[in-house]
Structure formats: C-alpha cells, structure tokens
Design brief:
Blueprint (H helix, E strand, L loop, with lengths): L2 H33 L5 H21 L12 H5 L2 H18 L2 H7 L2 H13 L6 H19 L6 H27 L3 H24 L1 H6 L7 H27 L2 H22 L7 H43 L1
Helix pairs in contact: 1-4, 1-11, 1-12, 2-4, 2-9, 2-11, 4-8, 4-9, 5-12, 6-8, 6-12, 7-13, 8-11, 8-12, 11-12, 12-13
C-alpha cells in the first residue's frame, strides 16, 4: 500500500513535468525562430542535442545517473529512435517557425490519431468507440480551423503533420524500448542525441544554415543568447520529460498531456501572438478541437481507472483468501 501513493505521485509528477516542459519549449522556440528571426532551425536542433549529450555525460561522470557504455550492440538497441528523434525535433522546429501558435497547436492534435495507430500496430492496443469519436471531432475541428487560416503556410502544415507522425511513432518505440530494459531512459536519451549530432551538423553545412547562423547579427544581444541557451537546455528537459512520462504512464497519456497543454498555448497565441489573424470560422474550428481534446482526455483517463478497478478487486480477493 505504501508503494501505491508513491506510484500515483510519480505518474502525476511525470505528466505535469512533461506538460510544463513542452509548454515552455514551444514559447521559447517561437521567440527565437520567429520574434528574433534566427535563420537556422537545424542549428537550434544541434544546440539541443549538444546540451543533452553534455548534461548526461557530466551526470554519469558525477555518478548521479548511469547508462551503459558504448559497444557494438548499442546502435541495434536504439534503432530506429535516433532517426525518429532528429526528424521529430527538426520538423517541430520548422513548423514552429512557419505557423502561428494556435494553428501549430491544433495541428499537433493529429499526433493523438497517429499515436493510436502506432500503439495499435506496435503494441496491439484497442480503443473504445467514445475515444475514436472524440479524436474524429478533434480532427474535424482542425480541418475547419485550417479552412479559414488567414496565414496559411503549406510547408508549415506539412512539417507539423510529419512531426505528428514522428512523435507518435517515437512514443510507441520509446515505450517498447523502455519495457525491454536494455538501455534505460538516460541511455536512450544520450545515444539518440549522440548519434545524430554529426549528421545534423553536416545537413546544416550543406544547406547553408550553418553559415547563416554564424553570420547572425544578434549574437551580441543578451536577451537573444539567453533564450537560445534556454531553448537548447529545454530541448534536453523536454526529451527527458517525454521519456519519463511515457515510462510511468503510456505514449497515449503523454499525448493527452500535450493536448491539454496545447489548449493553454492556443489561447495565449490568440491574444499575444503578432502573427495570428482572427476569423470566426478559424476561431470556431479551434474551439471545437479544444473541446473534443478535453473530452478525449477525460474519457481516456476514466477508462484507464475503470480498467484497473477489476484488477485491484481481484488482488483484494486473493489477499482475503490467503489471510
């Protein structure tokens, strides 16, 4: 019984930690890439990878954390997570740069649909009709909002939809890898980032983004540098919180928390974002998607609790028989 409150607290803390982290990184990345017009999403991604590798290596050296040393089996144990990780990171940054915050968040709700598909294929999970209905309503709201998006950007839409697919696939694979208990959460984070630093640097060099980043004029601006460094650190914090939430809960729960966080980001973006253009159809679509996402979160959580109730009653009965 003593472990049960601790487990509940750990699950709630992991979910809350992920929600706060994902909220902060969206705001900071939007500021760096849109407000300050930093020219390279790839270089922001590299900074986030470097921060992850450095923090975890220092933590291991100080014996605060532990993860396996590199050997020839590590690439096999991590694959395909490094590819999903870098694709997820870069597509998210590119989408953040090109879209308004409200449309960014409403299009991110496609990740729940893709998470359901990924968990169904990889983890053989099944979902109830009410859950399917709320997800359909979320997607319908997203289509209505997109149909009246006055700042429509095709590339931005494609980047976010790609990000949704990669987020869902990554979440399901992370759960699968964590259940295997081969590398642990710190090992997955460390090697995911380590394996993709050089390929991403090479891509930044080939595309010319590295040169643009070096020549960027605001490196002397203390406020910009502070937010850039915060973006790099928050990249690690977000990855860690995602893995933690998935480990203590599930990939679907991680998507739910992200969905609730998006409600806050949507309304903040409407009020404070300079690039959001109001229209009634867009506003109605956004709110349909928001209402459906809240209903979805409630249904999935209540279904999870009700499914665990019979298991707990069986355990109690067994305990009484033994006594």
């Amino acid at each position: 019984m003593a472990d049960q409150p601790l487990t509940v607290f750990a699950r709630l803390f992991a979910a809350g930690f992920y929600g706060v982290s994902s909220f902060l990184i969206v705001v900071v990345n939007k500021s760096v890439l849109t407000n300050y017009r930093f020219p390279s999403s790839l270089c922001v991604g590299v900074g986030q990878m470097l921060a992850t590798v450095v923090v975890l290596r220092v933590g291991k050296a100080a014996r605060v954390i532990s993860f396996p040393d590199f050997d020839e089996s590590i690439p096999r144990k991590t694959f395909p997570l490094p590819l999903l990780y870098v694709g997820n990171q870069i597509s998210g940054l590119l989408g953040t740069k090109r879209l308004t915050l409200p449309m960014f968040t409403v299009l991110r709700r496609f990740s729940i649909l893709f998470t359901m598909l990924a968990e169904g294929l990889l983890l053989k999970k099944k979902f109830s009709r009410p859950v399917q209905l709320t997800v359909f309503t979320m997607i319908l709201g997203a289509f209505i909002a997109a149909s009246a998006d006055m700042s429509f950007d095709l590339l931005g839409y494609l980047f976010i939809l790609l990000n949704d697919v990669l987020t869902a696939t990554n979440g399901a694979y992370v759960k699968q890898k964590l259940d295997a208990k081969e590398l642990g959460k710190f090992g997955l984070l460390y090697y995911n980032a380590l394996f993709m630093i050089l390929p991403t640097l090479l891509l930044a060099h080939v595309t010319g983004e590295m040169q643009k980043a070096v020549e960027y004029e605001s490196w002397s601006d203390v406020f910009f540098v502070t937010q850039f460094v915060l973006s790099c650190v928050m990249g690690f914090v977000l990855m860690y919180s995602t893995v933690l939430c998935t480990q203590y809960n599930s990939a679907l729960t991680t998507s739910i928390v992200g969905c609730i966080k998006n409600v806050l980001v949507t309304y903040i973006g409407m009020v404070f974002s300079d690039d959001y253009i109001f229209s009634w159809m867009n506003f109605i679509g956004l709110n349909i998607s928001i209402a459906a996402s809240l209903a979805y979160s409630y249904i999935t959580l209540t279904e999870e609790q009700s499914s665990k109730a019979p298991e707990n009653s069986k355990l109690d009965i067994k305990g009484k028989v033994v006594v």
